[in-house]
Amino acid sequence: MIDSVLKQTYKDIMLFVSDDGSTDSTESIIDDYVSKFPNKVRRIRIQKLHNGAGLHFLRALQNNEIKCSDYVMLADQDDIWCKNKVEKSVCSIKQLESRTKGDHIPLAVFCDSVLVSDDMEMIAPSYMKYAKLNPKKATFSHLLVQNVVTGAAMIMNKDLVEMINRIPEHFVMHDHWIALVTSAFGKIDYINEPLYMYIRHQKNTLDVKPGGVYNEIILRLRNNKKAYVRKSVREQARKNYEAMLLQAQSFEDIYGGRIRKDYARILKAYIDIPNKGMIGRVITILKYHITCDNWYRVIGQCSFFARSRILE
Fold first, then answer.
1. Looking at the DSSP assignment, which residues form a beta bridge with residue 71?
2. pLDDT tens sequence across 86-108
3. What is residue 195's DSSP assignment?
4. Which of these, 54, 83, 126, 181, could form a disulfide with 174 (CB 3.0-4.6 Å)?
5. Contact present, 22 and 125 (Cβ < 8 Å)
6. What CA–CA distance (Å, rounded) separates 125 from 31?
7. Closest CA to 111 of 91, 120, 307
């Protein structure tokens, strides 16, 4: 990953590297890069280690040097960037700034990626199409229940980084939290082009699975014939929605008094879902468009909220 960043066509780059308590040779590798590229690579240290990826990224964004940067991009340790990833990302976010007049508005732009296996064989030329994600759904109401913005695909402006100034008590992942904040206070744009290779490891923190009607409905119905499988699927869905509801509550705790009135109503309605009956839950998510990014996921979402108990 580091080599692909250092070979970017855009040269005005400072790479900040932070290690989350590795026990292998990561420490010496970082030291070697800092020694070889003192004007390009800098090490930062997070006081509390073993955070996990999400918390570690949010802690790193509190670093003063990073907060002073005009733009910030996040990189996973093993992704491989296309040579023009930074150049195209900076160009896109500057265009977004010009359209919004750059009046201290939090802005983010994200791109697509090529999905590859551990041995660098292509799985899909487009991660977004493979996972059947709709980049147009990077809006506040939709992001409450589904994230379509990948952290490694994102570039943020200084105003957004400054707004991520508190660590929430609950959040699903760092990119989900950042996207939610951006959608509430600023703008999110999309580059419809893969600008890096996303390696899907067998033991990824978040497994990447193919989307679509067949994979998400037909195949799931076939596999869910056994009671224990159905129970496991429902339990995982319950945990996911609980995590997003808790994240929404943390968002209200930090930003509730600052968001637009219409967003405040959406947020309050979503947080109050566990207190509603089955029909009330479904009416709420449809009324406020607190839905996933396509019709079959919305059907599954309505079915879950109508039948399941959450945050008990």
1. 157
2. 999 999 999 999 998 757 899 99
3. E
4. 54
5. no
6. 34
7. 91
